[in-house]
Amino acid sequence: MLFSIPESGWWLIALAATAFFMIGMLVLGAGMKLPEDLRDTVKQPSRKAKRIALLLMPLGCGAILGVNLLRPEPSPTILFLYSVAFASIPIALIPVRGRILKNYIAEKRKNPKAEATPDGLTMAWIISVLSVLLLGAVIALMMTSHHGMRL
Fold it and tell me: What distance in Å separates the CA atoms of residue 139 and residue 135, rounded to the nearest whole number?
């Protein structure tokens, strides 16, 4: 059932996953402003750097996909894995973005030169979400391979 979708359909799904990833990354950063007292101590990216990142993001996604399509596996399998990977990142990060920012601000106020590290609950959430999505993808591939498709 999973790979009964034609290859052109998987290309559309991969494009949609890329768009979802890019929108998710924009949403991740939207509204995450540092308080006034930290803006001078933490280097902020310029508008030009943000625009360049926005332009390079689709190129980077395309390069990742292109390199993976050089592998010997069928294209639908690679496109499926690519789509799962790119869609899962915003799903894992967006729900905890406020917590990440709050932790970052607290650590920077204690020591502006220290590297900020995520708290345990945030890491547990991210690892859990990514693990569940990865497990689901593996199960889907295994079920497909048992029904006649070779991976």
Answer: 6
